[in-house]
Design a protein that fits this description.
Jelly Rolls; single chain; 107 residues; globular; three-stranded antiparallel β-sheet; alpha+beta; 23% helix
Length: 107
């Protein structure tokens, strides 16, 4: 298991964590299996999508539209199998925060 700890600097923000995930999977020495990635935060999410500025802008536009500041509260072979344009992205919905974590487990 690996925990990635970091801070965010904006109310709404996207952070690319693909390199941390690739490093974790590589060091796990698991040849086949699954990798679970989650964040234990109610006001954040992890998504798998293209890391492209226009798409990030589209995502943030929708997030800002949907969320106000008034919350109520296959196989892996020693590397990730991602679509050509997919990246693991952490999406901040209530920043800035200094206590964000993403936990990765490979079995």
């Amino acid at each position: 298991m690996k925990t990635v700890e970091f801070s965010t600097s904006q109310k709404f923000e996207i952070i690319d964590l693909t390199s941390e995930l690739e490093d974790f999977v590589s060091k796990s020495r698991i040849k086949e299996g699954i990798c679970l990635v989650f964040t234990p935060h109610a006001t954040a999410a992890v998504i798998l999508n293209e890391n492209e500025k226009g798409l990030e802008d589209d995502i943030m536009l929708q997030v800002k539209t949907m969320f106000s500041s008034d919350y109520k509260h296959n196989k892996i072979d020693d590397k990730l199998i991602l679509g050509t344009w997919q990246s693991l992205l952490f999406c901040e919905f209530d920043g800035p925060r200094s206590d964000r974590r993403v936990i990765m487990v490979a079995k």
